[in-house]
């Protein structure tokens, strides 16, 4: 095992490195506008309060439907023109927000952007899944997660400074941010068109591609269980980090605005560091074990949040940050690992559809999380919500070891030739994690 966590980049093919580099620029652009849509439409453009809510809902719904369409397209068309097209559509969509001075314009931008961004995630995962080996595929998904979080966080910082202290009027500054985000999508599309080699399919694959649809994908038990588990993972983590967690902690005054800002900073930093320090090592641990360990980490995290909400001041903030730290470690471990596992199990004829369903699973959990929080938070100061999240996390911990009995061995542990010391460490972690999993 290399002492340098960045040394694994040398293992990547030129295409994988190109995808990572282009996605870094794209992620930075997304970070420029990530926190601002609600503020921009309501406060800067002065639109009615229902407009930002409807815009986000329409964007999410379009993304779910669009993702399924792009997945089917990818199973029939070479990815290079598809990735260029989806980047172009997403770029035009986010740039349209710059001129969204009315509700119809905002909703139009939401439809166009939702359609484009739904294809971006699907096609990017499809490109990583084309790696020559399962090891490179797993490392690529881990590296992408780290790059995405690091560059998105940097974009948020730069966007925050530009929105509050840049030249020109407030509206002009926000317009410039959305145009800049659109430019990064268009640049990414052009770069992919130039850098990606054409990937031709064999005649047999073309003839068979149409026979594998979404029904067949969901008919494979292991894929269906993994997609359902991924939805639950997204609901427990992504779906609650910006809804249930702040709602619960602030309802009784346990944590203030400064404390919440600190928890979000912890989330980004820990997610990146986890991938940098553990991304390569995790390739030598059974994926079913990683899933089980993540459930244990999340159950402990929400238990800490539960206690934090009953405290005040420094104690509450420290407990909340400890909980978010565990949530972040679990996120950084499980999402790249499950993404790689799904792609290892996927039939080549349905890889686009599998990655589209993956996007739908994550989006569904992210949308269902705030809805669940809105329903549960008013009751008993949010206590039932956090208890439910502890129980859901425990369910994830149980699913992991259960999957070991049905997963092919080479999919559960895809790195067949780890370094001797690394193998010993992985085996020890595997055994300890299983013993700790309920």
Q: Shape, please?
A: globular
Which runs of at least 5 residues are low in confidence (pLDDT < 50)? 200-209, 418-438
Number of strands: 0
Distance between the termini: 31 Å
Computed over alpha carbons, the radius of gyration is 21 Å
Largest sheet: none
The proportion of residues in beta strands is under 5%
Order of helices and strands: HHHHHHHHHHHHHHHHHHH
Tally of individual helices = 19
Q: Classify the helix fraction into a percent range.
A: over 70%
Name the average pLDDT: 82
Q: Helices and strands: which structural class?
A: mainly alpha
Describe this protein's structure.
The structure is a single chain. This protein has 438 residues and is mainly alpha-helical. It is built from 19 helices and no strands. It has helices at 14-33, 37-44, 50-74, 79-96, 103-129, 134-165, 170-195, 203-209, 214-219, 221-236, 238-241, 244-251, 257-278, 287-308, 313-345, 351-376, 383-403, 409-412, 420-436. Helix 6 (134-165) packs antiparallel against helix 7 (170-195), helix 10 (221-236) runs antiparallel to helix 17 and helix 14 runs antiparallel to helix 15. The longest helix has 33 residues, at 313-345. The chain is globular. The model is unreliable at 200-209 and 418-438 (pLDDT under 50).
Question: What would you say about this model in short?
Answer:
The chain is mainly alpha-helical. The protein contains 19 helices and no strands. The model is unreliable at 200-209 and 418-438 (pLDDT under 50).
């Amino acid at each position: 095992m290399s002492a340098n966590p960045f040394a694994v980049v040398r293992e990547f093919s030129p295409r994988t490195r190109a995808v990572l580099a282009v996605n870094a620029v794209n992620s930075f652009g997304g970070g420029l506008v990530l926190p601002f849509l609600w503020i921009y439409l309501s406060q800067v453009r002065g639109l009615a309060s229902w407009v930002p809510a409807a815009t986000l809902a329409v964007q999410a719904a379009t993304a779910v439907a669009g993702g399924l369409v792009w997945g089917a397209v990818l199973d029939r068309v070479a990815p290079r023109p598809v990735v260029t097209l989806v980047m172009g559509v997403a770029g035009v969509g986010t740039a349209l927000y710059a001129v969204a001075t009315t509700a119809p314009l905002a909703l139009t931008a939401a439809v166009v952007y939702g359609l484009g961004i739904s294809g971006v995630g699907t096609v990017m995962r499809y490109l990583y899944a084309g790696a020559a080996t399962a090891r490179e595929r797993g490392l690529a998904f881990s590296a992408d997660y780290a790059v995405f979080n690091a560059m998105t966080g940097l974009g948020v910082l730069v966007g925050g400074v530009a929105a509050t202290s840049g030249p020109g009027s407030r509206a002009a500054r926000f317009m410039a941010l959305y145009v800049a985000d659109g430019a990064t999508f268009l640049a990414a599309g052009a770069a992919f068109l130039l850098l990606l080699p054409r990937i031709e399919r064999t005649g047999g694959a073309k003839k068979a591609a149409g026979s594998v649809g979404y029904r067949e994908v969901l008919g494979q038990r292991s894929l269906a269980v993994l997609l359902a588990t991924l939805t639950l993972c997204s609901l427990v983590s992504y779906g609650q980090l910006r809804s249930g967690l702040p709602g619960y902690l602030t309802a009784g005054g346990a944590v203030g605005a400064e404390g919440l800002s600190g928890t979000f900073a912890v989330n980004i930093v820990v997610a990146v560091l986890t991938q940098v320090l553990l991304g390569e090592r995790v390739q030598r641990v059974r994926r079913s074990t990683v899933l089980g360990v993540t459930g244990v980490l999340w159950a402990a995290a929400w238990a800490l949040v539960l206690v934090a909400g009953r405290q005040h001041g420094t104690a509450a903030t420290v407990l909340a940050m400890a909980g978010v730290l565990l949530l972040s470690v679990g996120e950084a471990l499980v999402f790249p690992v499950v993404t790689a596992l799904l792609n290892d199990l996927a039939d080549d004829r349905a890889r686009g559809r599998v990655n589209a369903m993956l996007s739908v699973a994550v989006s569904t959990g992210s949308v269902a999380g705030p809805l669940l929080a809105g329903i549960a938070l008013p009751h008993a100061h949010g206590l039932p919500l956090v208890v439910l999240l502890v129980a859901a996390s425990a369910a994830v911990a149980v699913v992991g070891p259960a999957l070991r009995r049905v997963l092919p061995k080479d999919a559960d542990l895809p790195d067949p030739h780890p370094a001797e010391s690394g193998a010993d460490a992985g085996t020890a972690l595997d055994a300890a994690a299983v013993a700790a999993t309920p």
